[in-house]
């Protein structure tokens, strides 16, 4: 007999749990077969299945992410798909939209999907800026820049499909762990400058360099992200852009605050200097209560000496930082190439502290991703993210009746375990017909459960006893033949025990051992 436990029979789901099941199925995130397997395993412990317990089981089974499960528990059943992508969770919010982690439904490739927010879809200027970001990113192909692969429109939702970087942005890394070591900060500076040099050589100015736009991958690779404010080409631009302030104030070059459209590569070098200061100290270089106060300090206040906040910083790095943050563009390194030469000189001159060796791989451990409790975690069907869809997630009168969502009967749990152990891939893709041999109808209407309960019959019991008797007889025959064979070919031993097969005339056998 199998020692694998069977699930409890005839469990009843309350209305709340049934609504959760309906929501999960209608979302398209889980399939009927997989849902039944999870329920079968949960019934081993207890027949009481709440929405939270079922949700945790789906997460543990790898069928839902934590974000998806939370949204289903909140009643959200729409907004989990965008074009060919299944949305797994939010990654962050940029200046031009919300970024989600998505998985292609055919290629199973993970992508970062940047979606233009709904309030921008009626603004021709913002739509054009979003397209400009896609065009800028499409021109760049460098290991230290996040690659863009596609620009698409799905049901009026514009999005850019970009390379997914599994790691953490450096702003979050500093907030979490504190300032970086000097060697780690210089490594970040070198990689970011390599990416900038590639962009500048193609006439692209980023205009929004800051710690949160530097993504640190788990293998220690730094990537520039968010080309939302990038300017393509050196030609003059529309007058409307000259009067708009573009960039992040804490890291903005003085000339960019005056004329954002007229800046060149040296504005990115200034912003990169402010970023390096933050990585070494955990603070922005110029503090202030208001934005105007910060902008004024960028214009007139000398750059602070980083060694006041970071005594371990060597003089060569402090000098480089002062040059990068010079008020006049002409006093800064003239290009990213010139900055790379300066960094190379520092690295080759043994000017970094020997004991200050912090590999970047240790900062972003594998699987370290954006926090899943931030406020921007909407589905793309939420009214706060997509206009005109305030009903997303509600269970209204137009939803299919419960009978149409009947999941049928559960699979036998021991069959489920053995099939998973032998072939996990086949177990996951089992059809509904393979799961129809059941002991309960968990998700059906409780009134119908009595009609579907299988009843034991005398015929089936007789067959079971006959099969057991036949199996025992075969076992006895094998043992007797083995002993006879051994006696025929083996050495004679007077002390060897003798075996005798005795039948009681009723089909039952026993073996008597004579010493």
From TrEMBL:
Residues bound to ATP: 114
Domain Protein kinase as annotated: residue spans: 85-343
Ranges where the record places region Disordered: 387-462
The protein's enzyme class: transferase
Source organism of this protein record: Stieleria marina
EC assignment: 2.7.11.1
Protein name as catalogued: Serine/threonine-protein kinase PrkC
Gene name of this polypeptide: prkC_13
Protein's UniProt keywords contain Mitochondrion: no
PROSITE patterns in the cross-refs: PROTEIN_KINASE_ATP, PROTEIN_KINASE_DOM, PROTEIN_KINASE_ST
Matches recorded under Gene3D superfamilies: Phosphorylase Kinase, domain 1, Transferase(Phosphotransferase) domain 1
Signal sequence coordinates: none
Low complexity bias locations: 429-441
């Amino acid at each position: 007999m199998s020692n694998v436990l069977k699930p409890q029979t005839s469990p009843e789901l309350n209305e709340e749990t049934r609504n959760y099941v309906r929501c999960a199925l209608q979302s398209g995130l889980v399939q009927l077969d997989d849902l039944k397997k999870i329920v079968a395993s949960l019934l081993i412990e207890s027949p009481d299945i709440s929405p939270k317990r079922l949700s945790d089981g789906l997460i543990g089974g790898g069928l839902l992410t934590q974000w998806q499960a939370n949204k289903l528990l909140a009643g959200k059943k729409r907004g989990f798909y965008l074009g060919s992508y299944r949305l797994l969770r939010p990654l962050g919010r940029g200046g031009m939209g919300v970024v989600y982690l998505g998985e292609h439904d055919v290629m199973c490739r993970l992508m970062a999907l940047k979606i233009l927010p709904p309030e921008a879809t009626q603004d021709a200027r913002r739509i054009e800026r979003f397209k400009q970001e896609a065009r800028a990113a499409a021109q760049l192909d460098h290991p230290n820049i996040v690659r863009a692969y596609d620009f698409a429109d799905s049901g009026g939702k514009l999005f850019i499909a970009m390379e997914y970087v599994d790691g953490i942005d450096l702003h979050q890394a500093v907030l979490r762990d504190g300032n970086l070591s000097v060697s780690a900060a210089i490594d970040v500076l070198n990689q970011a400058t390599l990416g900038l040099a590639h962009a500048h050589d193609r006439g692209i100015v980023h205009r929004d360099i800051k710690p949160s736009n530097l993504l640190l991958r788990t293998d220690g690779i730094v990537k520039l992200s968010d080309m939302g404010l990038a300017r393509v080409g050196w030609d003059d631009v529309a007058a409307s852009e000259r009067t708009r302030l573009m960039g992040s104030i804490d890291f903005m070059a003085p000339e960019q605050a005056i004329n954002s459209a007229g800046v060149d590569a040296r504005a990115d070098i200034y912003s990169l200097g402010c970023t390096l200061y933050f990585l070494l100290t955990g603070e922005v270089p110029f503090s202030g209560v208001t934005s105007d106060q910060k902008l004024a300090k960028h214009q007139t206040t000398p750059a602070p000496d980083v060694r006041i906040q970071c005594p371990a910083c060597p003089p060569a790095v402090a000098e480089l930082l002062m040059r990068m943050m010079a008020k006049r563009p002409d006093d800064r390194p003239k290009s990213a190439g010139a900055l790379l030469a300066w960094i190379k000189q520092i690295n080759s001159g043994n000017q970094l502290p020997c004991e200050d060796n912090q590999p970047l791989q240790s900062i972003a451990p594998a699987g370290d991703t954006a926090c899943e409790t931030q406020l921007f975690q909407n589905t793309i069907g939420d009214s706060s993210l997509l206009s005109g869809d305030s009903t997303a997630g509600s269970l209204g009168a137009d939803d299919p009746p419960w009978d149409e969502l009947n999941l049928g009967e559960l699979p036998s749990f021991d069959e489920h375990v053995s099939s998973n152990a032998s072939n996990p891939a086949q177990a996951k893709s089992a059809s509904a017909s393979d799961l129809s041999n059941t002991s309960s109808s968990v998700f059906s209407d409780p009134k119908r459960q009595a009609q579907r309960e299988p009843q034991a019959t005398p015929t089936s019991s007789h067959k079971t006893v006959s099969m057991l008797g036949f199996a025992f007889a075969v076992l006895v025959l094998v043992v007797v033949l083995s002993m006879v064979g051994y006696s025929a070919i083996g050495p004679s031993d007077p002390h060897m025990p003798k075996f005798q097969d005795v039948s009681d005339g009723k089909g039952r056998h026993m073996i008597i051992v004579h010493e």
